[in-house]
Design goal:
By secondary structure, this protein is an all-alpha fold. Helix content is 66%, strand content 0%. The protein has a domain of 42 residues. The chain is rod-shaped.
């Protein structure tokens, strides 16, 4: 009698495992093999790495262009106003004679 009970318990356990996997992964025909899932994971990681590298590259090139533009702006003289009015001078700040 214990063999019958054991067989019944094993069949119920197998049935529950199959039902659980069918709910989680779909029917048996729709399940993908492990190799397919691994391939998709690797392809996804490669695409993510390429996207990250592209973002870093765009940021690097943009920072170089901004630095070059700032350096060019510092080197070029400021144009004189064309309306004939002289710009007002800004007072120079000095630190002589002040206590630390």
């Amino acid at each position: 009698m214990t063999e019958r009970d054991q067989a019944l318990l094993e069949s119920v356990q197998t049935h529950r495992a199959r039902l659980g996997s069918a709910i989680a992964f779909g029917s048996l025909g729709a399940r993908r093999p492990l190799a397919s899932l691994t391939r998709r994971l690797i392809i996804g990681m490669v695409v993510a790495a390429i996207a990250c590298a592209a973002c870093v590259g765009v940021s690097f090139v943009g920072s170089i262009l901004r630095a070059n533009a700032a350096a060019a702006a510092e080197q070029s003289p400021t144009p004189a106003p064309s309306d004939g009015v002289a710009p007002t001078p800004t007072p120079a700040s000095t630190t002589e004679g002040t206590a630390p």
